[in-house]
Amino acid sequence: MNSLSSTLNETTRFESPSHFPEPYVLIVQSDEALAIEVRQDLRDAGYLSIVAPNAKLALRQIDDRPPVLVVIDQSLGNESGFQISMQIRRRGMQIPVLLMMNKDGVDDRVACLEAGADDYFLKPYRSDAFIRLVQHYLRNEVVPQEILRFANLTLDLGLRQATRNGRSIDLTTKEFDLLKYLMENAREVLKREQILENVWGYDFGGESNVIEVYIRYLRLKIEEEGEKRLIQTVRGVGYVLREL
Q1: Could you give the dihedral angle defined by the CA atoms of residues 195, 196, 202 and 206, in that order, rounded to the nearest 10 degrees?
Q2: Ranges of each domain in the chain
Q3: Farthest-apart Cα atoms in the chain, separation
Q4: What is the pLDDT along the chain (244 residues), one digit of tens a residue?
Q5: pTM for this structure?
Q6: Rounded distance, CA 202 to CA 200, Å?
């Protein structure tokens, strides 16, 4: 099995609804690479999601436990995303449905509306445009504002609790604030000045090593069980939360 298939099996396998007590987004996607990318973007934005690779599994999941949003690829091998959207509407469900479309012609837009979809976005897939659309339709959901996720690290903003691989991590107030800022800006290189201003709340001058000290504290705690490093140092600039 190649690495892509292995990753898909680990991250997008069809799960029993009992494994997802929180509101979640259902991704109906048969393209392995695209499914992984979409799910990663949703996770980074704070949304729980699962993937169904075909209509049968998608509709079974929807019937068992409706998601808060459904994202469907218009082309699913031998299946049509339009048909899945229509079947959702025939069930009387008002779940927001977004279609990933190949074209943006008048006929395509009409077909999208006739299928009962609420909106669409175009291929090639663009993460920023997709997440903005998701946030628009889920702006009243509490999940994205309450829980931040990156890789296997989770930060519950309501409980002010961090976990990694299910292991609870106790953080001081400033450690929590620093990790929150890093997770909110995952994969973005943050300058020391930005971190000082946004976490400590002032423009700190001089040669203080306060950031370095707290980064070290965080690393000791989130890497306690030998997990791989997530907070990376960018020499001469600052820090970034990303996987290597």
Answers
A1: -150
A2: 3-141, 146-241
A3: 65
A4: 333 333 333 334 444 333 444 689 999 999 989 999 999 899 888 888 999 999 999 999 999 889 999 999 988 877 888 999 999 999 888 889 999 998 877 888 888 888 888 888 988 999 988 998 998 888 765 444 478 889 899 998 877 889 998 899 988 888 898 999 999 999 999 999 899 888 877 545 545 688 898 999 999 999 987 889 999 999 999 999 998 8
A5: 0.54
A6: 6
Topology of domain 3-141 in CATH is Rossmann fold (3.40.50)
Spatial CA neighbour of 11 closest among 31, 38, 39, 34: 39
Can 3-141 and 146-241 be said to share one CATH topology?
no
Q: Using an 8 Å Cβ cutoff, are 217 and 210 in contact?
A: no
- The CATH number that domain 146-241 falls under is 1.10.10.10
Return the CA Rg of the chain: 20
